[in-house]
From TrEMBL, chains A, B:
Pfam annotation, one family: IF-2B
General function of this protein: Catalyzes the interconversion of methylthioribose-1-phosphate (MTR-1-P) into methylthioribulose-1-phosphate (MTRu-1-P).
Origin species: Methanosarcina siciliae T4/M
The enzyme's E.C. designation: 5.3.1.23
Residues that hold substrate according to the record: 54-56, 97, 202, 252-253
Catalytic residues in the record: 243 (proton donor)
Protein name: Putative methylthioribose-1-phosphate isomerase
Signal peptide range: none
Length: 347, 347
C-alpha cells in the first residue's frame, strides 16, 4: 500500500496480502481514523452506499478496485464465465450511487481492459493493474488540477468550500482542496472556511479533519452562514468539487447551487475543480436523475434526534449549478471559462 | 394558566399556585413536551440563555414575567429597596440575550409600570398584571399580524420558513406561522417547507413539531436545500420572523440573509412578520452587535460529535437582511413596503 503525501494511508488502496480493497472509513471521522478491509463485493458496495468511501474521484478508484476484487473472488474457470461474473459485479457497483459518474467510469475502464486478457489469471492481473493505474493517475490528475488552479488563489486569501473535495474524496491530494494545497506549496498563505454540509456533515467531519492534519487553517461554519460570511467580507473565493459536469450544469453536493448564487450576489469568484473524468458529454441538467436520500438523515444526526420521527422530508443528494454561475472549471487538462463546449476540453 | 388555541399550554405563563414562571422547555422538543417551573430568577435566566424559551415575542413575555417573578421573590420592605432589587433583576434578564430587543422591551415595560405602585405589595400586583397584559397583547398582536398577512398567501401556496417564528416563539399563534395559521383559518390550503436552521435546529425540532400538532402539512429540508427547492419551483414565498428591525435591516436567525438573496434570485416574495415591538427606531445594521454563540454548537449535535473537538468555529446567532431584499414587513399595525421610515409605522 502507498503512503499518501500526508503520511497517512491513501483514501483507497489494494491490500495484496489479504486480496482486499482497503479504505479509510469516513463515516467514523473525526472521532476515529479506521481502515476497513472489504474482502467481498457486497462489503465494498455497502461501503460505497453508506458513504464510508465517497467523493467522485475516490469512487472512480473504488469502481476499478471493485472489478479487480470481483475478478479475484470469481471461481470462473473460463473467460466467458469470468466476464459474466464481472458484468454482474459491475451492475452491483454502479447501482450503489447512480448519480456518481466516476464510479461507473472506473468500473467500465477496468472492464474494458479485460479484453486484453488471454485467460482468467490474466483477467485478475489486468483488472488489478488497471485499477491501480486509476489510483496512480488520480493522484497525478489532482496534482495537475492543483497546478492549474493555484494561480486563482492569492497570498492571504480565504477560500469557502462545501462538502469534501479533498484528499479523502480522492485517492490523494484532492481536487478543490488540492488547489488549496498546491497554492500553499507555492508559498501562499491560504485559509479555508468549511461549510458543514448537512445532512451528512462531510464538511465538519472530513474537510476540517483533513485540513487540520495538514495544519491548514480552517474555520467551520453552518451552511446557512455562507451568505453572511460573504457579506462580512470574509470570503475571497468559493472553490468546490463536482460529481458530474454536463454541458449546462455542475452536479455537486446539495447546497452548492445556493453558494453559487451567493457568490454571484457578492461578486466573489466561484470555481469548480474536477478531473475531466467528471464530464458527462451527453448529459444535461434534465437528463440526470438526482438521487433522493433517506429521510432519516434529516430526522437524526447519529444518536441525536433532530425532528419528529414521522416528519416529511425532502432530501436530494445533489443540486445542479448553472454554468453561468461558474467563473472557471479547473481540470487536469487546464482551465475552462464558461461558456465552453465540453467537446473542446478533450481537444 | 391559559390553554392555547391548540389545546396545549401557552408557551409561557404565570403559575399562581407556585408563584413561578412556567414555560415549555423547547430544548427537549420534539422528543418530549415538558413544562418547567422557574421559581428563581436565575433559573429563568438560565432558561432564556439556553433557549429553553426563545423567539422574540416570547422573550418579551419572559422579560415581563421575569420582573414579576423578581418582585414576588424580593424581601424588600420599602419601595426603594424593591426598586433596587428589580433593577438588578432587569440587568440580569437583559444580559442573557443582548441582541433580543423584545426581552429588554418586556423588562422595561413592566419596570415602568412600577411607578404606579404605592407599596411593595402594589409592585407585586402591578408587575404581574403588566406581564400578563404583555402575554395577552402578544396573542392579540399575532392575530392581527395573521389577519394582515394572510392576504399574501394564495390557496395552494407553499411557504418556506426559517427557524421558528411560530406559536412557540410567541405566547401563542405565532408571527410568520401565525400568518400561515390565519390563511388556513380563511380556508386556504397552505403547505410549509421548514428549514432545519442549524446549528440549533429550531426548524426541525420546533417548527415541524408545532405544525404537525396542528395538522398543517410541513416538509423538512436542510438549510442548504432552500436555493434548490426554489429552483425546482417548490416555493411560492418566504416568510420569516424577526428579532430586531432597524431602519435599514432585519436582524433574524442566521441564514435569513441567505434566504433573502435566494428569494430575490428566484423572484419569490420575501416577507417578514413581526410585531412593531421588534422595531428598533434608533438602531442601524452597524450599531447592533451580533451575538457570537458557543463553538460547541457546531462541533456537537447533542450527543453526536460532528467535527474535530478543537476546530475553529464562526457561529453568529443572527444576520442582517437588507430592507431592499424584503418585499413587505407584516406587523400588527399593518403592512409596510420597503423603503419606509420606521417612524411612519407608529403614526
Amino acid at each position: 500500500m502507498f503512503t499518501s503525501e500526508s503520511d497517512l494511508m491513501r483514501t483507497i488502496d489494494w491490500n495484496e496480502e489479504s486480496n482486499s480493497v482497503v479504505l479509510v472509513d469516513q463515516t467514523l471521522l473525526p472521532q476515529e481514523y479506521k481502515i476497513i478491509e472489504c474482502k467481498t463485493l457486497s462489503s465494498l458496495c455497502e461501503a460505497i452506499k453508506t458513504l464510508r468511501i465517497r467523493g467522485a474521484p475516490a469512487l472512480g478508484a473504488a469502481g476499478g478496485f471493485g472489478i479487480a476484487l470481483a475478478a479475484s473472488l470469481s471461481g470462473a474457470k473460463d473467460l466467458e464465465s469470468m466476464t459474466r461474473d464481472l458484468k454482474v459485479a459491475a451492475k452491483a457497483l454502479k447501482s450503489t450511487r447512480p448519480t456518481a459518474v466516476n464510479l461507473g467510469w472506473g468500473v467500465d475502464r477496468v472492464l474494458k481492459a479485460v479484453s486484453d486478457a488471454f485467460d482468467v489469471r490474466g483477467v485478475r492481473d489486468i483488472t488489478l493493474q488497471e485499477a491501480r493505474d486509476i489510483a496512480e493517475e488520480d493522484v497525478a490528475t489532482n496534482k495537475l488540477i492543483g497546478k492549474y488552479g493555484a494561480k486563482f488563489l492569492k497570498d492571504g486569501d480565504t477560500v469557502l468550500t462545501h462538502c469534501n473535495a479533498g484528499r479523502l474524496a480522492c485517492v490523494d491530494w484532492g481536487t478543490a482542496l488540492g488547489v488549496v494545497r498546491s497554492a500553499i506549496a507555492e508559498g501562499k498563505e491560504i485559509k479555508v472556511i468549511a461549510c458543514e454540509t448537512r445532512p451528512l456533515n462531510q464538511g465538519s467531519r472530513i474537510t476540517t479533519w483533513e485540513l487540520m492534519q495538514d495544519k491548514i487553517p480552517v474555520t467551520l461554519i453552518a451552511d446557512s452562514m455562507a451568505g453572511w460570511a460573504m457579506h462580512q467580507g470574509l470570503v475571497d473565493s468559493v472553490l468546490v468539487g463536482a460529481d458530474r459536469i454536463t454541458q449546462d450544469v455542475v452536479f455537486n453536493k446539495i447546497g452548492t447551487y445556493t453558494h453559487s448564487i451567493l457568490a454571484k450576489e457578492h461578486e466573489i469568484p466561484f470555481y469548480v475543480a474536477a478531473p475531466v473524468s467528471t464530464f458527462d458529454f451527453k448529459g444535461w441538467e434534465g437528463s440526470v436523475r438526482i438521487e433522493m436520500r433517506d429521510p432519516e438523515e434529516l430526522r437524526f444526526s447519529g444518536c441525536q434526534q433532530l425532528a419528529p420521527k414521522d416528519v416529511e422530508v425532502y432530501n436530494p443528494a445533489f443540486d445542479a449549478t448553472p454554468m453561468e454561475n461558474v467563473t472557471a472549471v479547473i481540470t487536469d487538462k487546464g482551465v475552462f471559462y464558461p461558456p465552453f463546449l465540453l467537446d473542446e476540453v478533450l481537444v
